[in-house]
Design a protein that fits this description.
By secondary structure, this protein is of the alpha+beta class. The protein is 27% helix and 38% strand. The protein has helices at residues 21-35, 41-52, 60-65, 136-150, 212-225, and strands at 9-11, 72-75, 81-85, 90-95, 98-102, 107-110, 113-116, 119-126, 154-166, 169-179, 186-196, 199-208, 227-228.
Length: 229
């Protein structure tokens, strides 16, 4: 039934808006913690457990729904960006600038939005503020705060924020764990961000923790495929 379902990431695009004092405090707390972030024992243990997970033996049903290459191309309507995705995954437009791409069983409609259990959500997040420009770290922290405001079960893994390249420019990958309230299962969430003019291009990758080793190569290929104009 609904209560027994695996945890999911509810997509509700965080638009730029006036920052409430408590949200501003949370952003500053994240800024401070990320500036001094070091790989915690919790994160090192989590990372080690992921590295030790064996890739599952391919099954016919899995091979049909979880391909291992990104042969299709999603193009922004105004060609702001392009990215590859696996054949057989479905595209669901969520805004003029964003979409969800997931296997057929990876998205479930709900009253709060589209519940994503497997797949990726991406969009442009408005980060324009008066009289100053946000750094990549500041913009990323602002996005994470908004995501957590809309999904209280998200927990940033301490020390799990790393630099990476996204379309040949500096980007950040933040690892988040989403704990289920009704079961012992959880999801691994990657939030990948990169500045794009007065916006933040972001991708939110989601998969159950016990299946993440299967999806990680696909997610990494999708990140490498991104091209921003």
């Amino acid at each position: 039934g609904e209560a027994a379902r695996a945890p999911n990431f509810v997509f509700d695009h965080p638009q730029s808006e006036t920052i409430a004092p408590e949200i501003a405090e949370e952003i500053e707390r994240l800024n401070t913690s990320f500036r001094h972030a070091r790989a915690s024992g919790e994160f090192r243990a989590f990372q080690t457990s992921l590295e030790r997970l064996p890739y599952p033996i391919p099954k016919t049903v899995v091979a049909d729904t979880r391909p291992d290459s990104v042969s299709k191309i999603f193009t922004h309507p105004q060609d702001f960006y392009r990215l590859g995705y696996p054949d057989g995954w479905q595209v669901t437009r969520t805004s003029p600038n964003g979409a969800i791409i997931a296997p057929t069983d990876g998205v479930h409609p709900s009253r709060n939005g589209d519940d994503v259990t497997h797949g990726v959500m991406f969009d442009l997040f408005d980060i324009a503020v008066p009289d100053r420009s946000l750094t990549l770290e500041q913009a990323t922290n602002r996005l994470i705060v908004f995501l957590r405001q809309r999904n209280q079960s998200l927990r940033v893994v301490p020390g799990a924020q790393t630099q990476m390249l996204v379309s040949d420019e500096s980007g950040i990958r933040t690892v988040i764990i989403e704990k289920a309230n009704s079961s012992n299962s959880s999801e691994v969430v990657w939030v990948v961000t990169r500045l794009y003019y007065q916006s933040l291009f972001y991708m939110v990758f989601v998969a159950p923790e016990d299946e993440f080793a299967t999806y990680q190569p696909i997610f990494e290929q999708m990140i490498r495929s991104v091209r921003l104009r």
